[in-house]
């Protein structure tokens, strides 16, 4: 009896439920990756994916097999790869595109398809309120989520692994942001474990680089989220704070599973008709990091150069786009998705809607981050700004987050002429805030009426 394991965003052999089950229940297993041309778009993420495929292949070679790579529409490729009687195993993905694709494949191959959960800690659909409805607020979801028993890690079975490489691995045309494959991911987890106990205190500080950087490993599944939870545990407040972030990740996957329309529409229907200004020039200034607000510009430039941005700064840059520039959150969501190495539909949409106040958030639309006070609080010496906005590197800490507040002598000594070397603020935050509140209140008023 043989089977095919279709790898997608679970690029590991360890604690991979589909791989474990197939290699336990069959004599021979073919590991398969399908290059779907619709998703094969040059980006930081694609480079990282290719690096991870090489790493996965290296892991499979230890079982004397090879990763088989084929290109095409997944349902068509599977028809050619699956021999009569072969079973097909995969771990579920929860984006609307993936769900549609996987449902079509399940329809085509019927009972031969075995679907597992290897992407979330607890499978979307399994954490419900007492009245069996999905949670729309994180805190009660988290309570119930934390009460569940962790799934036992899945172990590889004894099947022979085939060594047909198909078309062969795609080659890297540029250097990935991080070393690819599950072995490198485990090393990153081990490195983070050495500093995890500072997480609760320092996780909001972009200048200190004190978070795990595991988001891309979780996105591609080079690490299992269950394995991460077991390794980190919850013995200290910092470890518990970290695991709570993993719960946020599950929460957004569960929301996407229940409310796939939120990819395009607000979860809260009262915000369907917000009157976005959608100024193209303002959008370009935001994308290129030229807003005149240093913490925003640093974040946007980090995203451009590294394909990653610290969570606090993601919140600030997203809030600035939506609430200071009145630009539709979907514009920002798509820009992030293009550039983020960890770009993930459920996480990105969920977080953008959270910031925009249109999604699953207990603190709603009137929370508007002030980029200056937030900068001073979370990047107190301005080191993060100086790293990504070199025009300001000579400016002292007192005005690094509001250079327009520095005196002419101070600016001259730092070699800065505002409006020339570095832009003046493109909007007045206090005024923009009032306009945003008016826009949201109008939408709410209309929906009440
Ligand atoms: C506007 C916006 C867009 C975002 N888009 C994405 C995205 O496309 N993909 C993505 O993985 N994360 C996204 N996030 C969440 C978060 O910013 C990143 O997961 C985090 O910055 C990754 O860094 P880390 O691994 O060092 O995080 P850590 O602080 O070390 O957290 C550990 C893990 O917990 C999860 N996590 C942490 N914060 C969040 C959160 N707010 N929501 C959901 N999961 C979280 C991630 O899997 C992360 O790797 C977004 C946040 C915002 C505000």
- What is the domain total for the residues? 3
Low-confidence stretches are: none
Q: Main sheet? A: 6 strands, parallel
| Share in helix | 40-55%
Shape: globular
What do these coordinates show?
With 449 residues, this protein is of the alpha/beta class. It has 3 domains: 2-118, Rossmann fold, CATH 3.40.50; 120-152 and 177-258, Serine Threonine Protein Phosphatase 5, Tetratricopeptide repeat (Alpha Horseshoe), CATH 1.25.40; 270-448, DNA Cyclobutane Dipyrimidine Photolyase, subunit A, domain 3 (Orthogonal Bundle), CATH 1.10.579.10. It has helices spanning 17-25, 44-61, 74-81, 96-109, 138-147, 182-193, 199-202, 215-220, 225-232, 237-258, 280-288, 294-306, 311-324, 329-339, 345-356, 371-378, 383-388, 408-413, 429-448; strands spanning 2-7, 28-35, 68-71, 87-91, 113-116, 160-161. Strands 1, 2, 3, 4, 5 and 6 form a 6-stranded parallel β-sheet that branches. The radius of gyration is 23 Å and the shape is globular. The model has no long low-confidence stretch (mean pLDDT 96). Bound molecules: flavin-adenine dinucleotide (FAD). Flavin-adenine dinucleotide is lined by residues 203, 211-215, 218-219, 242, 245-246, 248-249, 252, 311, 314-315, 318, 336, 340, 342-344, 347-348, 351-352, 355.
């Amino acid at each position: 009896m043989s089977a095919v394991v279709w790898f997608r965003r679970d690029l590991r052999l360890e604690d991979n439920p589909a791989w474990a089950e197939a290699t336990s229940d069959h004599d021979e297993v073919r590991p398969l990756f399908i290059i779907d041309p619709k998703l094969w778009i040059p980006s930081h993420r694609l480079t990282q994916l290719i690096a991870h495929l090489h790493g996965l292949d290296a892991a499979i070679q230890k079982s004397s097999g090879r990763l088989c790579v084929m290109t095409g529409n997944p349902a068509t490729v599977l028809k050619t790869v699956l021999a009569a009687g072969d079973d097909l195993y995969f771990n579920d993905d929860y984006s609307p595109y993936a769900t549609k694709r996987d449902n079509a494949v399940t329809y085509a191959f019927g009972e031969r398809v075995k679907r597992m959960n290897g992407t979330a800690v607890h499978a979307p659909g399994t954490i419900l309120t007492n009245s069996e409805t999905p949670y729309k607020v994180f805190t009660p979801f988290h309570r119930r989520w934390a009460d569940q028993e962790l799934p036992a890690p899945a172990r590889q079975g004894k099947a022979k692994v085939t060594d047909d490489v198909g078309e062969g691995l795609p080659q890297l045309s540029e250097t990935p942001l991080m070393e690819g494959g599950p072995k490198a991911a485990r090393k990153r987890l081990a490195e983070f474990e050495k500093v995890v106990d500072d997480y609760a205190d320092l996780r909001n500080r972009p200048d200190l680089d004190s978070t795990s950087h595991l988001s891309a490993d979780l996105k591609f599944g080079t690490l299992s989220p269950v394995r991460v939870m077991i390794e980190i545990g919850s013995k200290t407040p910092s470890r518990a704070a970290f695991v709570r972030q993993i719960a946020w990740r599950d929460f957004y996957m569960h929301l996407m599973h229940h409310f796939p329309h939120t990819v395009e529409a607000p979860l809260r229907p009262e915000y369907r008709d917000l009157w976005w200004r959608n100024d193209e020039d303002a959008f370009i200034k935001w994308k290129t990091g030229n807003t005149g607000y240093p913490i925003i510009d640093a974040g946007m430039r980090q995203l451009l150069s590294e394909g990653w941005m610290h969570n606090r700064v993601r919140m600030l840059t997203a809030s600035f786009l939506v609430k200071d520039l009145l630009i539709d959150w979907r514009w920002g969501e798509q820009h992030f998705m293009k550039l983020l190495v960890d770009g993930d539909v459920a996480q990105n949409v969920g977080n953008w809607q959270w910031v925009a106040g249109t999604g699953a958030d207990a603190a709603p639309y009137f929370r508007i981050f002030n980029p200056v006070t937030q900068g001073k609080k979370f990047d107190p010496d301005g080191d993060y700004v100086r790293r990504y906005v070199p025009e300001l590197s000579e400016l002292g800490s007192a005005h690094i987050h509001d250079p327009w507040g520095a005196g002419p002598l101070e600016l001259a000594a730092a070699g800065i002429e505002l409006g020339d070397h570095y832009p003046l603020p493109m909007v007045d935050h206090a005024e923009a805030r009032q306009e945003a509140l008016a826009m949201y209140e109008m939408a709410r008023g209309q929906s009440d009426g």
